[in-house]
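[09:14] KT: can someone run the structure on this one? pasting the chain below
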Amino acid sequence: MNVTPYAMESLISFVGRAASMNSTDSLSYLRELFPSAAHQSFTRLPEDLDALDHGVFLAGLNDALDPEKRRLELLTLPGTSPGVHTKWLRRAGGKHLGSDRFSKAPSFAWCPRCLLRDQLDGHDQFMRLAWRMTTRTFCLAHRRPLTTHCMACHDREAEPAFVFNGSNVVLACSACGSLYSTQLGLPDMSSSTVLELRDNRNVQIAWNEVIQLELAFEKSLSERSNTKNKSEFRDFAMAFANVLMKSIRLGRAPIDLFSSVAFPAQPNPRCITSMDRPYRASSIAVRRKTHGLIAAILKRRANLFSIKGVHEKRWGRVPSMQELRSELEPEQNNELDRLLLRFPAKWF
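[09:31] RB: done, structure tokens below
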């Protein structure tokens, strides 16, 4: 059965759709396409299809799945975004192995509203390549947070499953089978909180500021970008994010000092926050919260952050660098000093 790639589709999504139409899973489907001559040693398959550089495996996929058009390179991050090939920028991590190395398969994120739009338009649901960037935590089309887990069973380890329903491919939870396009709530928020935030002007301002930060961040990562001083902004934003996410002596990370109804996030496991560069391994919720705090501090505009907001109901204040520094340990302040010496007061 022929499968046509969609514009800006993820390669792993394209292979998943093809596999579902052949009533199998992606891994089994790839092993059918690339059989091994040895019965006891399987063909080595790439860990992350979306991060494939042009090579023998990608050429083989082109020949097998798109022999005439040869468009599959455009479904990979190296093929569409030169300059963002490195592992720590293109995908999420997981269990800490030592230094800045990780185990665990790359994580996924998606927008249920985009999937519902696919269904209403009468074609397959598919994963967008942009959702695989660790810097992207919002859907640009619907301006809502991306999610990374099923909101029916809340299994955070279950990956999306491509299911062929006889006419189209739909995305569902591999654990409970719930369709993602029916889960139009927001991750880590109750239904009542979502209703309260829907018309909250400060929340909309805060989310739009994060979207603008992420767009600028993403442009600064690409070799095609003409943004002035792009490397300076990229280095500052990444360094500041790592300062906010990193704890000392297995304690609390600075980002965990702040509370926000607009950016809920559970504290990171210690194996992540004790790393020198925890950004890539942090959850999408923690990255989104960190982006929100950075945008609020840089722009000094209305936001929903407060260090004591949960207890004193002091929402809506603009967090300041001074407020942040007053809560940091001496070692954390020293690290922030070193960062600000490289990127002086013009940022603030």
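[09:33] KT: thanks! The radius of gyration is 21 Å.
[09:34] RB: yep, looked fine to me
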